[in-house]
Target: Flagellar basal-body rod protein FlgF
Amino acid sequence: MDNANYVALSRQITLQRELDISANNLANMNTTGYKFEELLVNAEPGAPAVNAPIRTPANFAYDNGVGRNFTQGTMNQTGAPLDLALNGEGTFFTVTGKNGQTVYTRDGAFSMTGDGTLVTAQGYVVQGDGGPITLDPKKGEPVISADGIITQSYQGQAERVGKISVVRIANMSDLSKNGDSTYSLTSNAAAIPATDAAVRQGFLEASNVNPMTEITNLVRINRAYTTLANIVDQNSQLNRSAVERLGKVA
Model:
């Protein structure tokens, strides 16, 4: 196999990865707070398959990881008192994930357990300024202000229950995707309280996936993969013809 085939195959490998990522974006187009992803592809110089007559390095396609776009999605009004959305990029709700670790999410589709604990759709406990948020099921419907303070009415009096913990991540590249719409910090960087964040009660943040863009990407990826497959096939046929002609001369 010569250099052209190796370069084409390296690009086909990255195209397969792009196809998976684009399909995953489409699958999550209706997932609350989901952020679309894209593959980062670089050209990586490498030693050619044959040193002569090509003496310059061949440029192979290189998978440089997955980039994530954290631009804010559309705010959809639901009217549900426990549906919350964050107005502002780089801010997250703080929840307790699996094994008790602290993780972060933009998915504010919260609900209340039987004992009043506020949890995510996946059952992760929502954190407040003093620990887990616990509501009283016997009291009135919670009211949540823009700064995250939760109050419930009891005998005509509004009582403070707690404050939703909202943090800001300075560098989005410090976040690692965990699944279940949650992220964790992968470096020594610390999340800081987002005092300027605005919590919107009765709203949910939609995914920022553009379906038409992703469908276009799927078409582009499939066409590119087919073109490269044809190049590999044509190159193989040329090599086969060259060997056959050399054989006849000999």
Q: What stands out?
A: The mean pLDDT is 87. Residues 75-205 form one domain. The first strand starts at residue 37 and ends at 46. The chain is about 25% helix and 35% strand.
